[in-house]
Design goal:
By secondary structure, the chain is mainly α. It has one domain. The chain is built from five helices and no strands. Helix 1 runs parallel beside helix 3 and helix 3 runs antiparallel to helix 5.
């Protein structure tokens, strides 16, 4: 992914997260129990947070195209799918009828991908050349 692709994907992810947050706050509360609503809110928060991290990677890629930034952005994106995506499906299974028990182990994998993304971001910025002032 190049910087423009990362930024575009992050923008779409941000829009989806806000829409899912609004849906959760207004309609979903009528359809699922309180614990499931809290899980939904956790999924939205993590999606938004890691969308911002992806956006940050895209901006940094414009400044210094370090390959670890692309890796970090990719890890954040796949982490969103695994972590937030699995929580979205798990919390709505009572209304969608989707059997989502197999997704339970996917959620922590998403968390590990988030951690790996932050580590790659650390490595990337450690390689930056910053002019002395």
């Amino acid at each position: 992914m190049n910087a423009k692709q990362v930024l575009r994907i992050a923008a779409i992810s941000g829009a989806i997260a806000v829409a899912f947050g609004a849906f959760g706050a207004h309609k979903l509360k009528e359809l699922i129990d309180e614990k499931s609503v809290l899980n939904w809110e956790t999924a939205v928060k993590y999606q938004l947070l890691h969308t911002l991290a992806m956006m940050f990677c895209g901006v940094l890629l414009m400044l210094q195209p370090v390959k670890q930034l692309k890796t970090a952005a990719s890890l954040f994106l796949v982490g969103i799918f695994c972590f937030s995506g699995s929580l979205y499906l798990l919390t709505t299974r009572s209304i969608t009828g989707i059997s989502a028990e197999f997704l339970g182990p996917i959620t922590p994998i998403g968390g590990l991908l988030f951690i790996a993304g932050w580590i790659f971001l650390f490595v990337a910025v450690s390689k930056f050349t910053i002019p002395n002032n």
